[in-house]
Amino acid sequence: MLFPTFKFSLLLFFLCKLCNLSFSQADTSKINVVKEIKIIGNKTTKENIILREIPFKIGDTILVTDIKQVLERTESNLLNTLLFNFVTVEPVYFNKTLISIYITVEERWYWWPIPIFNVEEANFNTWWINKDLDKINYGLFMSKENFRGRKETIAFKFQAGYTEQVGIRYSIPYINKNKTNGLSMRLSYSRNHEANYNITNNTIDFYRSDKEYVRKEIQANVGYEIRPKLYNKHIFQAEFTNVQVADSVILLNKDYLSEVENNMQFITLYYTFKRDKRNFKSYPTTGYYFDFNLVKDGIGVLDEKLNSLYSSFQIRKYWQLSNRFYFSGSIKSKISIKSNPYYFYTSIGFTNDFIRGYELYAINGEHNIITKTQLRYALVKEKIFKINSIPADKFNKIPLAIYLGTYFDSGYVDSQINSKNNSLMNTALYGGGVSIDFVSYYDAVFRLEYSINKLNETGLYLHFIAPI
């Protein structure tokens, strides 16, 4: 009798486990069925543009345990369109199963006649050293965002000063019924009395002539985008460039353009893949971002001598460690398949690619890698200040967040050209420091950083974008 009793007990044990498992699964599998999606506040934006960013549709089921995360993701997706200042997403329950999702948006101001007043430098800090007023640009930039309520953008630029430039740009995110394909076009003409022609002692050398324009450039670009789902995007671009420089520039650097010429016409092909799941593009604190780029300068048309190829990628990751602490890290790298003329080199110290602590330096080369890490503390979590004296609803609510931070960056530039007089090439670079960041509306970021680099140089630096 002992053996049958044992078998019965064993069977009873497994039945109990199975029942517990079934009940456990039933408890965690409670679902909500989306009966309705109600959008409020979209006076300009078409409803289908908003629905395109939502990770669910009417009739979908959402686990009860996932509802909070799904609604937060919806809010982030809509804010990342840069069409709205504020977004709230709330569920309204019809019963235990059926829910309605209420989405309330406060639209931004979409028509921007903006005066241009900026400095022509890699960053504000390099200009501040000499405070050269000749490097100031001024003019007018006119942009109509969310044109026709379809997230289209049309923009015109009229600029004088250091760089005289006129340009037009148009983009439409969706040209098909499924809203997966888009187009963009850009045309510009610019000219300068000054051009950078080389790098010596890790700083850029310039040639200037007030009697003539030493650099003229025409660019025409057309792009085609494929965005099959919410977070992935493929971008294909073709660009025509005609660049002409003064003979004096070629005398100073015979490798400025190919084959000691002062004029070059060529076509560039671009491919970019992006995956973006950041909570807020302008100043992310959670999520991740990845992109990969492949660029081909010269395709055997117009200029048969030009034949270069490079690829680059970057990965950024953001973590919320606790209620107020955040950590982020990134890695970015560029590899050139073939050495290019000087005109094509943009490495560390150009645009926003820099290692903190080296803002005043330009470090050029065929290949590079940059890593960044940052720990931030939310001194002031986002607060909304309403200024009643401003009548316009699109401007009288001002969000403000303040973060204290500490950071460490490192990098390396590999160069086989012009490295004798540039000690920061082909050597490990690193820097760190402390920072305070101010974040407000319309993507405004103001960062003040105190850095030290491997040369034991210290400095106070100002930036206007997110650190990572």
Notable traits:
2 domains, mainly beta, Ubiquitin-like (UB roll), 5 helices, Porin, 468 residues
How would you characterize this protein structure?
This protein is mainly beta and about 475 residues long. It folds into two domains: about 1-105, Ubiquitin-like (UB roll) (Roll); about 110-465, membrane protein fhac: a member of the omp85/tpsb transporter family (Porin). The chain has helices at about 1-30, 45-50, 65-80, 125-130, 245-250, and strands at about 30-40, 60-65, 85-95, 100-105, 110-120, 135-145, 150-160, 165-170, 180-190, 195-200, 205-210, 215-225, 230-245, 265-275, 285-295, 310-320, 325-335, 365-385, 395-415, 430-440, 445-455, 460-465. The strands form three sheets. It has a 16-stranded antiparallel beta sheet with strand order 5-6-7-8-9-12-13-14-15-16-17-18-19-20-21-22. A four-stranded mixed beta sheet has the order 2-1-4-3, covered by helices on one side. Strands 10-11 form a two-stranded antiparallel sheet. A hairpin with a 4-residue loop joins strand 21 and strand 22 (about 460-465). The radius of gyration is 27 Å and the shape is globular. The model is unreliable at about 1-30 (pLDDT under 50).
